[in-house]
Specification:
single chain, about 210 residues, mainly alpha, elongated
Length: about 210
């Protein structure tokens, strides 16, 4: 009787722990996707999508040349860094449409020059040319989070580029938190199973019933 009562209780703690890690792991990605909310915004036009694609392709070409040694950080201008930033942000956004939404939100918050400065900063950091480049004031927190700890030589070729910086580092913290929760839940269950006083009281209660 005691075991039947306690096992579901310990199982509940384990279930809560698993739900917590899933939520904490994926919530940064969801909040990044929904930065500022897309409600009320018009879908990007084909011309906007094409312009964004052209900028991203230009940034990718610069990055490839940088990696192959055809150019160097010393030769790059702010215009080049802006295109690099467009490329890196596009990878983080996951799609050109999302990238346009992100740009529109940044422009609404910081103006056109602010949007340009954000891309330049991301280009400098993501390329590895200036990993400590200043992030413009008032940059949306999830954008600055993606740039803040980015180092040269990262996995820039994946669609999860930006999340490597924020979500996956956050996952490390989440895993540590899950381990702590699991330890506490396990200790709690062990104490209750091995507590003779509680067992005696429970048995006495069961006999009275």
């Amino acid at each position: 009787m005691i075991d039947r009562i306690k096992k579901p209780r310990v199982g509940a703690y384990v279930a809560i722990s698993l739900i917590s890690i899933a939520f904490l792991t994926f919530s940064p990605m969801v909040s990044a996707q929904m930065m500022g909310g897309y409600q009320g915004q018009k879908p990007p036009s084909q011309s906007e999508l094409q312009d964004e694609t052209n900028m991203q392709n230009a940034g990718q070409a610069i990055y490839n040349n940088l990696q192959s040694g055809k150019t160097s950080c010393q030769k790059l201008t702010d215009n080049d860094y802006e295109k690099l930033g467009e490329y890196f942000m596009g990878l983080s956004a996951g799609s050109t449409e999302n990238h346009v939404y992100w740009d529109n939100n940044i422009q609404q918050m910081m103006g056109d020059q602010g949007d340009t400065d954000v891309h330049i900063a991301w280009g400098k950091r993501g390329s590895g040319c200036q990993t400590n480049a200043a992030i413009p004031t008032n940059t949306p927190s999830f954008i600055s989070g993606m740039m803040n700890d980015r180092l040269a030589g990262g996995d820039n070729g994946t669609m999860m580029y930006g999340y490597n910086n924020s979500s996956w580092n956050g996952m490390d913290t989440t895993l540590a938190a899950l381990l702590a929760i699991a330890i506490v839940a396990g200790a709690y269950g062990w104490i209750h199973r091995s507590n003779p006083t509680r067992r005696t009281k429970t048995s006495a209660t069961s006999r009275r019933k």
